[in-house]
Specification:
By secondary structure, the chain is of the alpha/beta class. It is built from 11 helices and 17 strands. The chain is about 30% helix and about 20% strand. The strands form 5 sheets. Strands 5-8-6-7-9 form a 5-stranded mixed barrel. Strands 11-12-14-16-17 form a 5-stranded mixed β-sheet. α3 packs across α6, α3 runs parallel beside α7 and α6 runs antiparallel to α7. The longest helix has 15 residues. The mean pLDDT is about 95.
């Protein structure tokens, strides 16, 4: 499981010291805890690994106290998902776990865990031959421009999966609408099933900019060697920061996808989260005490502070409150919230990043 990512579009709730997976955005549990609960349907804690940055060590260890036996890998330096997934694959092999490895981001919302688990098991069976990297694709329910898409080939492979011909990143609205009319497109959920040996082999063959730095260390780990922390740090400091999608999946001919027919969201922004929150008088809310809403419609109101929120005569706003910050912006500018983090970073306002 990948518990990283800055989550800058969820400012001010998501911060560098406590990013999105460690925040209870939807209910009482954090997104990380929700993910761990889903994975209990697939494997015991002893066969579950969380990969996070070393800077999140305290938060990660605190979160995992409720899940004893869960393994924690702390990257010396965050280097995106290519390095994280390769380390998890090498670690699995080094512990004699050569079955199918599942890669799951820790910041998604899935309302029906049983349907999710059923789909994962089907994908794992397809990946068991060691010849395929199997992604879980989600059948689109709307022309969403915030998601990446997978274009599927026509010929079905063993296990009911179809080859992925192309990755399409965040299309225009017009293209997304065209994708909705064709059954050849799925949302890319970022969830992956594959044998760890295949993950490392494809990394070695297709991502030399990552493998040159990490390869020798990962090979030792895969053989079961105990690698000193200083060795890990040197390797990670030389590695290029790349996503696994870009470094491997978009370059590989072994990528297939299985459609998932369960409600899913990567909760990429506050407006996407709003769809999962309680409906109150025409607004989406998550806060205590409940907000006072007077002639207010289609707003998203989220608060982690014990303060009364009142909206009067406003529509289509995001109103996000924490103990030290308040965000108010137009709902259709949700994707631009990351600019706030960029600006505070430029101003060296580290206490707000």
């Amino acid at each position: 499981m990948l518990a990283g990512g800055a989550g800058t579009r969820f400012w001010p709730a998501s911060r560098k010291a406590l990013p999105k997976p460690f925040v209870p955005l939807v209910g009482a549990r954090t997104l990380l805890a929700d993910t761990l609960e889903r994975l209990r349907l697939l494997a015991p804690a002893e066969r579950t690994t969380v990969v996070a940055a070393d800077s999140l060590a305290r938060a990660a260890r605190a979160a995992l106290r409720a899940y004893p036996g869960t393994r924690l890998l702390l990257e010396p330096i965050a280097r995106n998902t290519a390095a994280a997934i390769a380390w998890a694959a090498a670690d699995a092999l080094g512990r004699g776990l050569d079955g199918v490895l599942g890669v799951f981001p820790a910041d998604h919302h899935i309302a029906r865990p049983e349907a999710f688990a059923k789909t994962v098991k089907r994908a794992a069976r397809a990946a068991a031959d060691g010849e395929q990297l199997v992604l879980l694709g989600i059948e689109p329910t709307r022309p969403d421009t915030g998601y990446g898409y997978l274009r599927l080939g026509r010929a079905a492979r063993a296990g009911g999966v179809r080859p992925v011909e192309r990755f399409v990143e965040k299309p225009s609205l017009a293209r997304a609408r065209r994708f909705m009319t064709r059954r050849a497109y799925l949302w890319n959920s970022g969830m992956l099933l594959a044998r760890p040996a295949l993950i490392l082999a494809e990394m070695r063959a297709l991502a030399p900019e990552v493998w040159r730095a990490l390869g020798p260390t990962l090979s030792r780990i895969a053989e079961g060697d105990a690698v000193p922390r200083a060795t890990l740090a040197r390797a990670w400091s030389r590695a290029k920061s790349l996503s696994f999608d870009y470094a491997v999946l978009e370059r590989s001919r072994r990528v297939a996808a299985l459609p998932g027919r369960f409600a899913w969201s990567d909760l990429g922004s506050w407006d996407a989260l709003g769809e999962r929150l309680q409906l109150l008088d025409g607004n989406r809310v998550h806060c205590l005490p409940p907000p006072l809403l007077l002639e207010a419609k289609r707003n998203v109101v989220w608060s982690s502070a014990d303060r009364q929120v009142v909206l009067l005569g406003v529509r289509d706003l995001l109103v996000i409150q924490t103990t030290d910050a308040l965000l108010v912006c137009a709902n259709d500018r949700a994707q631009d919230v990351r600019r706030i983090v960029d600006e505070f970073t430029r101003q060296h306002r580290e206490e707000l990043v």
